[in-house]
Amino acid sequence: MPRSAAAGSYTTTAVALHWLVALGVFGAFSLGLYMHELPLSPTKLKLYSYHKWAGVTIFLLALIRLAWRATHPAPPLPDHMPRWQRMAANATHHLLYVLIVAIPLTGWLMSSAKGFQTVWFGVLPLPDLLDKNKDLGDTLALVHKTLNLSMAALVSAHVGAALKHHLVDRDDVLARMLPFVNNKKVAQ
Amino acid sequence: MIRTTAVALASLIFAGATASGTASAAEVGPVQIDQSRVAFVSKQMGVPIDGEFRKFSAQLSFDPAKPEAGRARIDIDMASIDAGSAEANEEVVGKNWFNARQFPTAGFVSTGVRPLGGGKFEVAGTLTIRDKTREVLAPFTMTAQAASVQFDGSFVINRADFGIGQGVWADFDTVANEVQINFKLVAAAKK
Ligand code: HEM
Ligand code: HEM
Fold first, then answer.
1. What is the annotated signal peptide range for this record (chain B) (predicted)?
2. Which end of chain A has fewer CB atoms within 10 angstroms, the N or the C?
3. C-alpha B177 – ligand 1 centre gap (Å)
4. First vs last C-alpha separation in chain B
5. What is the ipTM of this complex?
6. Residue from B44, B91, B92 to probe the interface with A (highest A Cβ count within 10 Å)
Protein backbone atom coordinates (compact mmCIF):
# COMPACT_ATOMS: atom_id res chain seq x y z
CA MET A 1 0.00 0.00 0.00
CA PRO A 2 1.53 3.37 -0.99
CA ARG A 3 2.02 5.91 1.75
CA SER A 4 -0.71 8.56 1.84
CA ALA A 5 -2.76 10.65 4.24
CA ALA A 6 -5.69 8.26 3.86
CA ALA A 7 -3.41 5.46 4.97
CA GLY A 8 -2.48 7.54 8.03
CA SER A 9 0.94 8.41 6.70
CA TYR A 10 2.95 11.02 4.82
CA THR A 11 3.79 10.28 1.19
CA THR A 12 7.32 9.13 0.47
CA THR A 13 7.93 12.43 -1.34
CA ALA A 14 6.75 14.43 1.68
CA VAL A 15 9.09 12.44 3.92
CA ALA A 16 12.02 12.84 1.54
CA LEU A 17 11.43 16.59 1.23
CA HIS A 18 11.05 16.99 5.01
CA TRP A 19 14.43 15.41 5.66
CA LEU A 20 16.24 17.02 2.74
CA VAL A 21 15.11 20.43 3.94
CA ALA A 22 15.90 19.59 7.58
CA LEU A 23 19.40 18.43 6.65
CA GLY A 24 19.96 21.51 4.49
CA VAL A 25 18.73 23.81 7.24
CA PHE A 26 21.03 22.27 9.85
CA GLY A 27 23.96 22.62 7.44
CA ALA A 28 23.22 26.19 6.34
CA PHE A 29 22.49 27.24 9.91
CA SER A 30 25.77 25.94 11.34
CA LEU A 31 27.74 27.26 8.39
CA GLY A 32 26.04 30.66 8.77
CA LEU A 33 26.99 30.94 12.44
CA TYR A 34 30.54 29.76 11.78
CA MET A 35 31.40 31.83 8.70
CA HIS A 36 30.02 34.99 10.26
CA GLU A 37 32.70 34.93 12.99
CA LEU A 38 35.68 34.42 10.65
CA PRO A 39 38.08 37.26 9.85
CA LEU A 40 38.11 38.18 6.16
CA SER A 41 40.03 35.58 4.15
CA PRO A 42 39.59 33.61 0.93
CA THR A 43 38.09 30.83 3.06
CA LYS A 44 35.47 33.21 4.42
CA LEU A 45 34.52 34.35 0.92
CA LYS A 46 34.23 30.73 -0.20
CA LEU A 47 32.08 29.77 2.79
CA TYR A 48 29.79 32.75 2.21
CA SER A 49 29.27 31.59 -1.35
CA TYR A 50 28.63 27.99 -0.28
CA HIS A 51 26.15 29.23 2.33
CA LYS A 52 24.31 31.24 -0.29
CA TRP A 53 24.27 28.37 -2.78
CA ALA A 54 23.00 25.96 -0.13
CA GLY A 55 20.42 28.50 1.03
CA VAL A 56 19.05 29.02 -2.47
CA THR A 57 18.86 25.24 -2.92
CA ILE A 58 16.86 24.97 0.31
CA PHE A 59 14.61 27.78 -0.93
CA LEU A 60 13.80 25.78 -4.07
CA LEU A 61 13.22 22.58 -2.07
CA ALA A 62 10.96 24.53 0.29
CA LEU A 63 8.89 25.80 -2.63
CA ILE A 64 8.57 22.28 -4.01
CA ARG A 65 7.67 21.09 -0.54
CA LEU A 66 4.92 23.70 -0.21
CA ALA A 67 3.52 22.82 -3.62
CA TRP A 68 3.54 19.15 -2.65
CA ARG A 69 1.84 19.88 0.66
CA ALA A 70 -0.82 22.01 -1.04
CA THR A 71 -1.77 19.02 -3.18
CA HIS A 72 -1.17 16.22 -0.63
CA PRO A 73 -2.87 16.70 2.74
CA ALA A 74 -1.09 15.63 5.92
CA PRO A 75 -2.45 12.61 7.79
CA PRO A 76 -4.70 13.52 10.72
CA LEU A 77 -3.14 13.89 14.15
CA PRO A 78 -3.81 11.05 16.60
CA ASP A 79 -7.12 11.20 18.48
CA HIS A 80 -5.56 11.27 21.94
CA MET A 81 -4.10 14.77 21.40
CA PRO A 82 -5.84 17.57 23.34
CA ARG A 83 -6.99 20.68 21.51
CA TRP A 84 -4.13 22.88 22.63
CA GLN A 85 -1.58 20.39 21.37
CA ARG A 86 -3.24 20.20 17.98
CA MET A 87 -3.25 23.97 17.79
CA ALA A 88 0.38 24.15 18.87
CA ALA A 89 1.38 21.51 16.32
CA ASN A 90 -0.48 23.26 13.52
CA ALA A 91 0.91 26.67 14.44
CA THR A 92 4.46 25.33 14.64
CA HIS A 93 4.20 23.58 11.29
CA HIS A 94 2.78 26.70 9.64
CA LEU A 95 5.51 28.87 11.09
CA LEU A 96 8.20 26.43 10.02
CA TYR A 97 6.85 26.51 6.47
CA VAL A 98 6.89 30.30 6.54
CA LEU A 99 10.45 30.35 7.89
CA ILE A 100 12.00 27.96 5.38
CA VAL A 101 10.81 30.36 2.69
CA ALA A 102 11.37 33.65 4.52
CA ILE A 103 14.91 32.89 5.71
CA PRO A 104 16.44 32.24 2.29
CA LEU A 105 14.43 35.15 0.89
CA THR A 106 15.86 37.58 3.45
CA GLY A 107 19.33 36.15 2.74
CA TRP A 108 18.90 36.85 -0.95
CA LEU A 109 17.51 40.35 -0.36
CA MET A 110 20.30 41.08 2.16
CA SER A 111 22.92 40.06 -0.38
CA SER A 112 21.40 42.36 -3.00
CA ALA A 113 21.25 45.26 -0.56
CA LYS A 114 24.86 44.67 0.45
CA GLY A 115 25.92 44.76 -3.18
CA PHE A 116 26.97 41.11 -3.36
CA GLN A 117 24.93 39.41 -6.00
CA THR A 118 24.02 35.75 -5.55
CA VAL A 119 25.32 33.55 -8.35
CA TRP A 120 23.96 30.06 -7.72
CA PHE A 121 26.84 27.57 -7.76
CA GLY A 122 28.89 30.29 -9.45
CA VAL A 123 26.87 29.75 -12.62
CA LEU A 124 23.33 31.12 -12.41
CA PRO A 125 23.07 34.77 -11.39
CA LEU A 126 19.93 35.56 -9.42
CA PRO A 127 18.47 38.99 -10.12
CA ASP A 128 19.23 41.62 -7.50
CA LEU A 129 15.79 42.50 -6.17
CA LEU A 130 17.08 45.51 -4.23
CA ASP A 131 19.54 48.25 -5.05
CA LYS A 132 22.69 48.55 -3.00
CA ASN A 133 21.87 50.23 0.30
CA LYS A 134 24.11 49.69 3.30
CA ASP A 135 21.55 50.46 6.02
CA LEU A 136 18.94 48.23 4.44
CA GLY A 137 21.57 45.50 4.07
CA ASP A 138 22.42 45.71 7.78
CA THR A 139 18.73 45.64 8.72
CA LEU A 140 18.09 42.60 6.56
CA ALA A 141 21.11 40.85 8.08
CA LEU A 142 19.53 41.39 11.48
CA VAL A 143 16.17 40.12 10.19
CA HIS A 144 17.89 37.05 8.69
CA LYS A 145 19.59 36.36 12.01
CA THR A 146 16.44 36.91 14.09
CA LEU A 147 14.35 34.63 11.88
CA ASN A 148 17.08 32.01 12.17
CA LEU A 149 17.12 32.18 15.96
CA SER A 150 13.31 31.95 16.01
CA MET A 151 13.48 28.91 13.77
CA ALA A 152 16.09 27.31 16.05
CA ALA A 153 13.70 27.71 18.99
CA LEU A 154 10.75 26.33 17.02
CA VAL A 155 12.74 23.37 15.72
CA SER A 156 13.81 22.53 19.27
CA ALA A 157 10.17 22.50 20.35
CA HIS A 158 9.29 20.53 17.19
CA VAL A 159 11.94 17.88 17.87
CA GLY A 160 10.95 17.77 21.55
CA ALA A 161 7.32 17.20 20.61
CA ALA A 162 8.25 14.48 18.11
CA LEU A 163 10.29 12.68 20.77
CA LYS A 164 7.50 13.06 23.30
CA HIS A 165 5.05 11.47 20.84
CA HIS A 166 7.39 8.60 20.31
CA LEU A 167 8.66 7.99 23.83
CA VAL A 168 5.83 9.14 26.06
CA ASP A 169 2.63 8.89 24.01
CA ARG A 170 4.02 5.95 22.03
CA ASP A 171 1.99 6.93 18.97
CA ASP A 172 3.08 6.80 15.31
CA VAL A 173 3.66 10.54 14.82
CA LEU A 174 7.45 10.25 14.57
CA ALA A 175 7.40 6.99 12.69
CA ARG A 176 5.13 8.26 9.93
CA MET A 177 7.65 10.98 9.16
CA LEU A 178 10.62 8.62 9.17
CA PRO A 179 11.95 7.15 5.95
CA PHE A 180 12.36 3.38 5.58
CA VAL A 181 9.83 2.68 8.32
CA ASN A 182 6.75 0.65 7.59
CA ASN A 183 4.26 2.57 9.75
CA LYS A 184 1.57 -0.01 9.75
CA LYS A 185 3.90 -2.28 11.66
CA VAL A 186 5.07 0.43 14.01
CA ALA A 187 1.56 1.71 14.58
CA GLN A 188 0.23 -1.81 15.03
CA MET B 1 43.48 80.25 -41.20
CA ILE B 2 43.61 76.86 -42.87
CA ARG B 3 44.21 75.29 -39.47
CA THR B 4 41.17 76.98 -37.94
CA THR B 5 39.01 75.80 -40.81
CA ALA B 6 40.33 72.27 -40.47
CA VAL B 7 39.61 72.26 -36.74
CA ALA B 8 36.12 73.65 -37.33
CA LEU B 9 35.46 71.00 -39.97
CA ALA B 10 36.83 68.23 -37.81
CA SER B 11 34.69 69.38 -34.90
CA LEU B 12 31.67 69.38 -37.15
CA ILE B 13 32.41 65.88 -38.35
CA PHE B 14 33.04 64.79 -34.79
CA ALA B 15 29.78 66.36 -33.67
CA GLY B 16 28.00 64.35 -36.34
CA ALA B 17 29.84 61.17 -35.42
CA THR B 18 28.83 61.30 -31.78
CA ALA B 19 25.35 62.59 -32.67
CA SER B 20 25.48 64.91 -29.72
CA GLY B 21 24.37 68.01 -31.60
CA THR B 22 26.12 70.77 -29.75
CA ALA B 23 29.62 69.36 -29.79
CA SER B 24 32.01 72.15 -30.46
CA ALA B 25 34.74 71.65 -27.89
CA ALA B 26 37.97 72.11 -29.69
CA GLU B 27 39.84 71.48 -26.51
CA VAL B 28 38.78 70.67 -23.02
CA GLY B 29 38.89 72.72 -19.87
CA PRO B 30 39.54 71.59 -16.30
CA VAL B 31 38.24 68.21 -15.21
CA GLN B 32 35.08 68.37 -13.10
CA ILE B 33 36.06 65.87 -10.46
CA ASP B 34 32.68 65.73 -8.75
CA GLN B 35 31.12 64.39 -11.93
CA SER B 36 33.98 62.09 -12.80
CA ARG B 37 34.52 58.56 -11.61
CA VAL B 38 37.32 56.04 -11.40
CA ALA B 39 35.69 52.71 -10.72
CA PHE B 40 36.51 49.04 -10.99
CA VAL B 41 34.82 45.67 -11.07
CA SER B 42 36.53 42.74 -9.41
CA LYS B 43 35.22 39.19 -9.34
CA GLN B 44 34.81 37.20 -6.14
CA MET B 45 33.77 33.58 -6.53
CA GLY B 46 32.51 34.49 -9.99
CA VAL B 47 30.43 37.39 -8.66
CA PRO B 48 31.17 40.88 -9.99
CA ILE B 49 31.74 43.40 -7.19
CA ASP B 50 31.68 47.14 -7.87
CA GLY B 51 34.26 49.42 -6.35
CA GLU B 52 35.60 52.92 -6.84
CA PHE B 53 38.13 55.47 -5.75
CA ARG B 54 36.50 58.46 -4.15
CA LYS B 55 39.51 60.77 -4.32
CA PHE B 56 41.60 61.40 -7.37
CA SER B 57 42.80 64.25 -9.51
CA ALA B 58 43.01 64.40 -13.27
CA GLN B 59 44.53 66.64 -15.90
CA LEU B 60 43.46 66.32 -19.50
CA SER B 61 44.21 68.01 -22.70
CA PHE B 62 42.40 66.72 -25.70
CA ASP B 63 41.32 67.99 -29.05
CA PRO B 64 39.35 65.51 -31.15
CA ALA B 65 40.75 67.20 -34.22
CA LYS B 66 44.25 66.31 -33.07
CA PRO B 67 43.81 63.27 -30.87
CA GLU B 68 47.50 62.38 -31.18
CA ALA B 69 48.35 65.47 -29.17
CA GLY B 70 46.05 64.44 -26.33
CA ARG B 71 47.47 63.95 -22.88
CA ALA B 72 46.10 62.68 -19.60
CA ARG B 73 47.31 62.23 -16.11
CA ILE B 74 45.32 60.75 -13.25
CA ASP B 75 46.49 60.48 -9.65
CA ILE B 76 44.52 58.30 -7.29
CA ASP B 77 44.43 58.45 -3.50
CA MET B 78 44.55 54.77 -2.59
CA ALA B 79 43.15 55.27 0.91
CA SER B 80 39.94 56.56 -0.69
CA ILE B 81 39.08 53.13 -2.05
CA ASP B 82 35.59 51.72 -1.71
CA ALA B 83 35.87 48.01 -2.47
CA GLY B 84 32.22 47.25 -1.80
CA SER B 85 32.00 46.81 1.98
CA ALA B 86 33.55 48.18 5.15
CA GLU B 87 35.27 44.85 5.78
CA ALA B 88 36.78 44.82 2.29
CA ASN B 89 37.88 48.46 2.56
CA GLU B 90 39.82 47.70 5.70
CA GLU B 91 41.47 44.72 4.06
CA VAL B 92 42.51 46.20 0.72
CA VAL B 93 44.44 49.18 2.06
CA GLY B 94 46.59 46.65 3.96
CA LYS B 95 49.95 45.13 3.10
CA ASN B 96 48.67 42.24 0.98
CA TRP B 97 46.74 44.54 -1.31
CA PHE B 98 47.51 48.19 -2.01
CA ASN B 99 49.62 48.85 1.05
CA ALA B 100 48.29 52.40 1.06
CA ARG B 101 50.57 53.51 3.85
CA GLN B 102 53.69 52.78 1.84
CA PHE B 103 52.17 53.50 -1.59
CA PRO B 104 49.57 56.21 -0.97
CA THR B 105 48.95 57.04 -4.61
CA ALA B 106 48.58 55.21 -7.89
CA GLY B 107 48.76 56.98 -11.19
CA PHE B 108 48.20 56.85 -14.89
CA VAL B 109 50.25 58.93 -17.31
CA SER B 110 49.43 58.81 -20.99
CA THR B 111 52.09 58.29 -23.62
CA GLY B 112 49.89 58.65 -26.69
CA VAL B 113 46.39 58.73 -28.09
CA ARG B 114 45.22 57.39 -31.42
CA PRO B 115 41.83 57.62 -33.12
CA LEU B 116 39.99 54.34 -33.71
CA GLY B 117 37.29 55.93 -35.86
CA GLY B 118 33.60 56.34 -35.17
CA GLY B 119 34.14 58.69 -32.24
CA LYS B 120 36.41 56.17 -30.51
CA PHE B 121 39.99 56.62 -29.41
CA GLU B 122 42.63 54.69 -27.60
CA VAL B 123 45.00 56.02 -25.02
CA ALA B 124 48.28 54.31 -24.24
CA GLY B 125 50.08 55.01 -21.03
CA THR B 126 51.76 53.75 -17.93
CA LEU B 127 49.86 52.68 -14.89
CA THR B 128 51.69 52.64 -11.59
CA ILE B 129 50.20 50.83 -8.61
CA ARG B 130 52.29 50.03 -5.55
CA ASP B 131 55.86 49.82 -6.82
CA LYS B 132 54.97 48.34 -10.20
CA THR B 133 54.58 50.19 -13.47
CA ARG B 134 52.94 48.59 -16.50
CA GLU B 135 51.96 49.72 -19.98
CA VAL B 136 48.20 49.79 -20.54
CA LEU B 137 45.92 50.54 -23.49
CA ALA B 138 42.47 51.94 -22.87
CA PRO B 139 39.87 52.53 -25.56
CA PHE B 140 37.56 55.43 -24.83
CA THR B 141 34.79 57.51 -26.31
CA MET B 142 34.28 61.23 -26.14
CA THR B 143 30.82 62.73 -25.88
CA ALA B 144 30.30 66.45 -26.03
CA GLN B 145 27.46 68.06 -24.10
CA ALA B 146 26.42 71.70 -24.05
CA ALA B 147 28.96 72.84 -21.47
CA SER B 148 31.10 69.79 -20.92
CA VAL B 149 32.86 66.91 -22.55
CA GLN B 150 32.71 63.41 -21.21
CA PHE B 151 35.29 60.68 -21.69
CA ASP B 152 34.29 57.10 -20.95
CA GLY B 153 36.57 54.15 -21.17
CA SER B 154 37.57 50.91 -19.64
CA PHE B 155 40.36 48.39 -19.69
CA VAL B 156 41.32 45.24 -17.87
CA ILE B 157 44.39 44.74 -15.73
CA ASN B 158 45.75 41.63 -14.11
CA ARG B 159 46.08 42.33 -10.42
CA ALA B 160 49.05 39.95 -10.14
CA ASP B 161 51.05 42.20 -12.52
CA PHE B 162 50.98 44.86 -9.81
CA GLY B 163 51.36 42.60 -6.81
CA ILE B 164 47.79 43.39 -5.70
CA GLY B 165 46.56 40.58 -3.47
CA GLN B 166 49.49 38.68 -2.03
CA GLY B 167 49.88 35.93 0.54
CA VAL B 168 46.64 33.99 1.06
CA TRP B 169 45.02 36.06 -1.69
CA ALA B 170 47.61 35.23 -4.33
CA ASP B 171 45.67 32.45 -6.05
CA PHE B 172 42.74 33.33 -8.23
CA ASP B 173 39.98 30.93 -7.14
CA THR B 174 38.32 33.41 -4.83
CA VAL B 175 39.37 36.77 -6.26
CA ALA B 176 39.96 36.67 -10.03
CA ASN B 177 43.15 38.03 -11.53
CA GLU B 178 41.33 40.22 -14.04
CA VAL B 179 39.99 43.51 -12.75
CA GLN B 180 38.11 45.85 -15.01
CA ILE B 181 38.83 49.54 -14.62
CA ASN B 182 36.11 51.95 -15.75
CA PHE B 183 36.64 55.65 -15.95
CA LYS B 184 34.38 58.56 -16.66
CA LEU B 185 36.04 61.95 -16.83
CA VAL B 186 33.98 65.07 -17.32
CA ALA B 187 35.72 68.25 -18.33
CA ALA B 188 34.39 71.72 -18.94
CA ALA B 189 34.04 72.44 -22.63
CA LYS B 190 36.43 75.13 -23.74
CA LYS B 191 34.90 77.38 -26.34
C1 HEM C 1 17.43 28.06 4.98
C2 HEM C 1 18.42 28.73 4.56
C3 HEM C 1 19.36 29.55 5.40
C4 HEM C 1 19.71 29.42 6.72
C5 HEM C 1 19.27 28.37 7.71
C6 HEM C 1 20.63 30.49 7.01
C7 HEM C 1 21.22 30.70 8.25
C8 HEM C 1 22.10 31.71 8.54
C9 HEM C 1 22.68 31.97 9.82
C10 HEM C 1 22.42 31.18 11.08
C11 HEM C 1 23.50 33.04 9.70
C12 HEM C 1 24.37 33.69 10.79
C13 HEM C 1 23.70 34.93 11.29
C14 HEM C 1 24.58 35.71 12.24
O15 HEM C 1 25.27 35.08 13.05
O16 HEM C 1 24.57 36.93 12.14
C17 HEM C 1 23.44 33.46 8.34
C18 HEM C 1 24.14 34.54 7.81
C19 HEM C 1 24.09 34.90 6.48
N20 HEM C 1 23.29 34.37 5.49
FE21 HEM C 1 22.05 32.82 5.69
N22 HEM C 1 20.80 31.26 5.88
C23 HEM C 1 20.05 30.71 4.87
C24 HEM C 1 19.92 31.14 3.58
C25 HEM C 1 20.66 32.19 3.04
C26 HEM C 1 20.59 32.62 1.67
C27 HEM C 1 19.70 32.03 0.59
C28 HEM C 1 21.47 33.66 1.54
C29 HEM C 1 21.81 34.51 0.34
C30 HEM C 1 21.52 34.25 -0.88
C31 HEM C 1 22.07 33.88 2.83
C32 HEM C 1 23.02 34.83 3.10
C33 HEM C 1 23.59 35.03 4.32
C34 HEM C 1 24.62 36.02 4.55
C35 HEM C 1 25.22 36.96 3.52
C36 HEM C 1 24.93 35.94 5.93
C37 HEM C 1 25.96 36.76 6.66
C38 HEM C 1 25.34 37.97 7.28
C39 HEM C 1 26.38 38.87 7.88
O40 HEM C 1 27.57 38.71 7.57
O41 HEM C 1 25.98 39.72 8.66
N42 HEM C 1 21.56 32.97 3.73
N43 HEM C 1 22.56 32.65 7.64
C1 HEM D 1 14.92 22.55 10.21
C2 HEM D 1 14.36 21.49 10.52
C3 HEM D 1 12.90 21.14 10.35
C4 HEM D 1 11.88 21.76 9.72
C5 HEM D 1 11.92 23.08 8.98
C6 HEM D 1 10.69 20.94 9.89
C7 HEM D 1 9.45 21.24 9.41
C8 HEM D 1 8.34 20.44 9.52
C9 HEM D 1 7.01 20.75 9.06
C10 HEM D 1 6.62 22.05 8.36
C11 HEM D 1 6.21 19.70 9.32
C12 HEM D 1 4.75 19.60 9.02
C13 HEM D 1 4.50 18.71 7.86
C14 HEM D 1 3.05 18.78 7.44
O15 HEM D 1 2.18 18.38 8.21
O16 HEM D 1 2.83 19.26 6.33
C17 HEM D 1 7.02 18.71 9.97
C18 HEM D 1 6.55 17.48 10.42
C19 HEM D 1 7.32 16.62 11.20
N20 HEM D 1 8.63 16.81 11.60
FE21 HEM D 1 9.82 18.30 11.11
N22 HEM D 1 11.03 19.83 10.62
C23 HEM D 1 12.38 19.92 10.91
C24 HEM D 1 13.14 19.03 11.62
C25 HEM D 1 12.66 17.89 12.23
C26 HEM D 1 13.44 17.00 13.04
C27 HEM D 1 14.93 17.15 13.38
C28 HEM D 1 12.61 16.01 13.44
C29 HEM D 1 13.02 14.86 14.29
C30 HEM D 1 12.65 14.57 15.41
C31 HEM D 1 11.29 16.28 12.86
C32 HEM D 1 10.19 15.50 13.00
C33 HEM D 1 8.97 15.73 12.39
C34 HEM D 1 7.85 14.83 12.49
C35 HEM D 1 7.79 13.54 13.27
C36 HEM D 1 6.82 15.41 11.73
C37 HEM D 1 5.43 14.80 11.51
C38 HEM D 1 4.42 15.40 12.41
C39 HEM D 1 3.10 14.78 12.11
O40 HEM D 1 3.08 13.59 11.85
O41 HEM D 1 2.09 15.50 12.13
N42 HEM D 1 11.36 17.44 12.12
N43 HEM D 1 8.31 19.19 10.09
1. 1-25
2. C
3. 28
4. 17
5. 0.78
6. B44
In degrees and rounded to multiples of 5, residue A170 shows phi and psi of 55, 40
Our CA-based measurement puts residue B59 at a distance from the nearest CA of chain A, in whole angstroms, of: 31
Full domain range(s) for residue B79:
6-190
Residues of chain B with pLDDT under 50: 1, 5-26
Longest dimension (CA), chain A: 58
In a domain, B1, yes or no: no
Interface test with B, best of A116, A124, A138 (most B CBs within 10 A): A116
User: What was the pLDDT predicted at B10?
Assistant: 43
Q: How many domains does chain B have?
A: 1
Query: Which residue blocks in chain B are alpha helix, DSSP H?
Result: 2-18, 86-92
Instruction: DSSP letter for A182, please.
Output: -
- pTM for the predicted model, two decimal places: 0.86
Ligand 1 proximity of A137 Cβ (cutoff 6 Å): no
Give the CATH number, domain containing residue B13: 2.40.128.110
Q: Do B45 and A122 touch (CB under 8 A)?
A: yes
> What does the pLDDT read at residue A8?
77
Using a 10 angstrom Cβ sphere, with 0-12 exposed, 13-18 middle and 19 or more buried, the burial of residue A151 is buried
Whole-number pLDDT of residue A180:
81
